[in-house]
Specification:
single chain; 170 residues; mainly alpha; 2 domains; three-stranded antiparallel β-sheet; 6 helices; 3 strands; 59% helix
């Protein structure tokens, strides 16, 4: 039930954010609000099944303003900077042909499934890396387009992502 409510609220707020200023009633029309509610209920019921399958449990703690502030700072700061750096590195690798692909094991150090889920998605969104698997100890297996060491440190592959995600999701 907690997952259903959490996903519903996030879906509805996201819908309202995307459609802001397009109606007559304050910022939305009654039809838009109704459609947003229905779409959010459908999304929440579908996502609840998915989260249950992969054992990811978002909590009400995610509604904390402090965590939202950390999420915004993470997205605008470290994550965006890592995206720029990875894009430039990937362009260099493509132009020069200097690639050494491989799969590396990254100890996440995160405790909750939701935090590991966020880390895996952050790594996958970064160009040149792809989260492939997660083991029972929350270690991630990541495919990198260029592997410098056979056993790289966590910071070499996913920068400061685990520390920020720990503040946001745990």
């Amino acid at each position: 039930m907690r997952t259903l409510i959490t996903v519903f609220v996030f879906s509805f707020l996201f819908y309202l954010l995307l459609t802001i200023g397009s109606g007559e009633l304050v910022l939305w029309s009654p039809g838009e609000i109704f459609f947003g509610l229905m779409a959010s209920i459908i999304t929440a019921s579908l996502i609840r099944k998915l989260f249950g399958t992969v054992k990811v449990r978002p909590t009400f703690a995610l509604f904390s303003p402090k965590r939202w502030l950390f999420l915004i700072v993470y997205a605008v700061g470290p994550f965006f900077a890592s995206m720029i750096k990875a894009n430039l590195d990937l362009a260099y690798r493509i132009i020069t042909g200097k690639i050494r692909p491989g799969i590396v094991k990254i100890p996440s150090g995160l405790k909750t499934g939701f935090a590991v889920f966020m880390l895996a998605n952050s790594i996958t969104l970064t160009p040149g890396t792809l989260s492939v698997d997660i083991d029972k100890k929350n270690n991630l297996y990541v495919h990198c387009i260029y592997v410098r060491n056979k056993e790289p440190k966590t910071g070499e592959v996913c920068s400061c992502f685990p520390g920020w995600i720990r503040r946001i999701a745990e």
